[in-house]
C-alpha cells in the first residue's frame, strides 16, 4: 500500500513542478548550456528542395537530429520556406522535433517560436488581422485584446507556445519600410496596446493551451532613425 502510494506520489510529483533547476544546471556540460541558449532558424533543419505537397513534413530528420542531439540546440524559430503551412503540417513538425528531443540526454523540451504578428499569419486558414499600425489607429485596446486571444489560441493549437510579438519599437520615421509593424509614434498608445496584447496572450497561466508566451521586440539597433 505504502509502496503504491509512493509510486503514485512520485509520478504526480515528477510530472508536475518538481524539476530541480539547480540540480539540472549542475548536471549540464558547458556544451549543453551553450546549446540550450542557442536558437536556430527553421532553414537549419529543412528539407531541400521545398516539398511540393503542403502535407509533407518539411523537416529533414538527419539535420534535425544533428542540431538537437549533436549540437544540443534548445530552440527553433520561423516558418518553413517563409510561407504559411497547414495546421496539420505544423503539428507534424513540432512532433518530430519533440520526438528527437526525447532522445537527448536531458530531454528538455525544445522551445518553438513563431512570428504571429497580425493573426497567426504563418498558419494556413488562420484568421488574418490588420497590422499593429492600423490597430493603433483604432485607439481601441479591446480590439487588440480580442485579436491577441484569437492569435494565441490559433498559434498554440499547432503546438507553438511562443509568439514573437508585440513590436514595441516606437515608429518615428514614416518612410521606414517596417513602420506598419509598430503601434505608431505615440509611446503612451504603443505602451497601452502592448500591455493589453501581452496580458491577453499570456493570461495568468501558460499551461492553459489557449495562451502563449510573448516577446517584446526589437529595441536595440532596430527601428529608424536609430
Ligand atoms: C537531409 O540532409 C542530409 C544531410 O545534409 C542530406 O544528405 C539529405 O539529402 C537531406 N535529405 C532531404 C530529403 O533533404
Ligand atoms: C484558458 O484561457 C482562456 C483565454 O484566456 C480562458 O477563456 C479559459 O477560461 C482558460 N481556461 C482555463 C481552464 O482556465
From TrEMBL:
Give the superkingdom in one word.
Answer: Eukaryota
Kindly list the biological process annotations in GO that this record carries.
Answer: glucan catabolic process
Q: Which family does it belong to?
A: Belongs to the glycosyl hydrolase 3 family.
Q: Which SUPFAM superfamilies match?
A: (Trans)glycosidases
Record's signal peptide? 1-18
One term of GO molecular function: beta-glucosidase activity
UniProt domain Glycoside hydrolase family 3 N-terminal: residue ranges: 30-222
A Pfam family reported for this protein in Swiss-Prot or TrEMBL: Glyco_hydro_3
- Keyword check for tRNA-binding, yes or no: no
| The reaction(s) this protein catalyses | Hydrolysis of terminal, non-reducing beta-D-glucosyl residues with release of beta-D-glucose
Enzyme class per UniProt: hydrolase
Protein name, UniProt field: beta-glucosidase
| Species for this entry | Brachionus plicatilis (Marine rotifer)
Q: What is its EC number?
A: 3.2.1.21
Write out the entry's keywords from A to Z. Glycosidase, Hydrolase, Signal
Amino acid at each position: 500500500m505504502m509502496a503504491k502510494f509512493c509510486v503514485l506520489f512520485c509520478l504526480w510529483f515528477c510530472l508536475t513542478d518538481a524539476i530541480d533547476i539547480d540540480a539540472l544546471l549542475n548536471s549540464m556540460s558547458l556544451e549543453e548550456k551553450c546549446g540550450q541558449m542557442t536558437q536556430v532558424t527553421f532553414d537549419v533543419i529543412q528539407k531541400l528542395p521545398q516539398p511540393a505537397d503542403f502535407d509533407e513534413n518539411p523537416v529533414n530528420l538527419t539535420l534535425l537530429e544533428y542540431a538537437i542531439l549533436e549540437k544540443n540546440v534548445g530552440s527553433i524559430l520561423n516558418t518553413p520556406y517563409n510561407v504559411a503551412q497547414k495546421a496539420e503540417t505544423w503539428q507534424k513538425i513540432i512532433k518530430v522535433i519533440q520526438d528527437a528531443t526525447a532522445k537527448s540526454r536531458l530531454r528538455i523540451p525544445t522551445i518553438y517560436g513563431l512570428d504571429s504578428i497580425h493573426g497567426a499569419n504563418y498558419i494556413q486558414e488562420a484568421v488574418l488581422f490588420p497590422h499593429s499600425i492600423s490597430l493603433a489607429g483604432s485607439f481601441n485596446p479591446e480590439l487588440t485584446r480580442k485579436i491577441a486571444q484569437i492569435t494565441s489560441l490559433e498559434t498554440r493549437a499547432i503546438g507553438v507556445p511562443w509568439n514573437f510579438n508585440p513590436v514595441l519599437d516606437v515608429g518615428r520615421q514614416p518612410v521606414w519600410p517596417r513602420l506598419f509593424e509598430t503601434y505608431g509614434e505615440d509611446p503612451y498608445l504603443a505602451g497601452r496596446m502592448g500591455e493589453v496584447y501581452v496580458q491577453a496572450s499570456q493570461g495568468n497561466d501558460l499551461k492553459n493551451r489557449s495562451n502563449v508566451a510573448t516577446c517584446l521586440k526589437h529595441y536595440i539597433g532596430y527601428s529608424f532613425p536609430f
